[in-house]
Amino acid sequence: MARLTVIILAAGKGTRMKSASKHYSKVAFPILGEPIVSYVLDAVKGVKPHTIVTIVGFGGETTKKIVHDQSEIVWQKEQKGTGHAVLQAKKYIKNNKNDMTLVLCGDAPLIRTETLKKLVTFHTQNHNDQTLLSAIVPDPFGYGRIVRDSSKNLVKVVEQTDATLEEARIKEVNTGVVIFNNAALLKGLSKLTNKNAKQEYYLTQLISIFLRDKKKVGVMITDHPEEMDGINDRYQLTVAQSKIQARINKGHMFNGVSIMSLNTVFIGPYVKIGPDTVIEPNAVILGHTTIGKEAHIGANSYIVDSNIKSGMHVEPSSFIKNNKKIK
Predict the structure, then answer these.
(1) 102 forms bridges with which residues in the sheet?
(2) Most buried one in 38, 92, 122, 139, CB count within 10 A?
């Protein structure tokens, strides 16, 4: 039976987050009370991988504390690129028939299980050795461009710093999500070089290596380009939170919860709420909170890791943590 390994790249420094701490990793920053990387972990669990490996580096001890009970940990001591990062996890890439490895970024919390499932299916049904997930975006600046020939076949992915003026105009970009057949991946990793502007080992170099070795490389264009959004600064963190906030609130409303103000109610990803519960404006509900059916959460309430029973009325401006009312 084919096995899937997932590698989460989470070793980056995140210098644009402007943190005063030298020990706080970018993927540890919270969105609705949960670390960025937790959203990625939740998404990949849905494809039922045999092994999850998280590559840690800068602020690695912080990241390790978050993922250690859900993932294997591999250190990338030197920041030498995405290809170098995957090389550190080589021992987890088993060279068994039909085994695959999915690689994605730990700072892209909008990725969904449904998209990853589609990518795995696309990859296997097309008998590819490597399949990239791409997106069409209005502003491709900063992303690697998908370069195709006149027959629309993939030629290469070129990074922003290495792109010509013509290549820089391309709107189709690499999302950073890619899946490989393990036998081809292991051979390709041994051929990586750092002959580029940053002198790094790019994982995208495997495209040209695979094509040169007559391996089959495909691209699946996502219908949801917002899922590729990575987080590099505090502004992007807040933008991502707004999108996740809307996604979570919509899900609860479709399940029978009344939310009186979509933009001011903040609900964490692990919160459970029963039908016919009403949530008033400016409520914040985080952690592993459970709210029964027909409850009423007053305006400006803050609830963390608590159990609100069915029919219970939480007064406005209440602060409840671990089932204890603080005020």
Answers:
(1) 6, 179
(2) 38
CA torsion through residues 206, 209, 214, 218, sign: positive
CA–CA distance, 147 with 133 (Å, rounded to integer):
13
Smallest Cα–Cα separation from 38: which of 52, 51, 50? 52
What is the pTM assigned to this prediction? Answer: 0.95
Beta-carbon count within 10 A of 231 CB: 26
Average pLDDT, the chain: 95
Residue 188 predicted with pLDDT over 90: yes
**Residue 130 Cα distances to 13, 54, 107, 182, 311, angstroms:** 28, 20, 22, 9, 53
Q: Which residues face 156 on adjacent strands? A: 147
Give the pLDDT of residue 195. Answer: 86
pLDDT tens sequence across 40-71: 999 999 999 999 999 999 999 999 999 999 99
Q: Residue 76 — φ and ψ, nearest 5°? A: -110, 95
| pLDDT tens digits, one per residue of 140-156 | 998 999 999 999 999 99
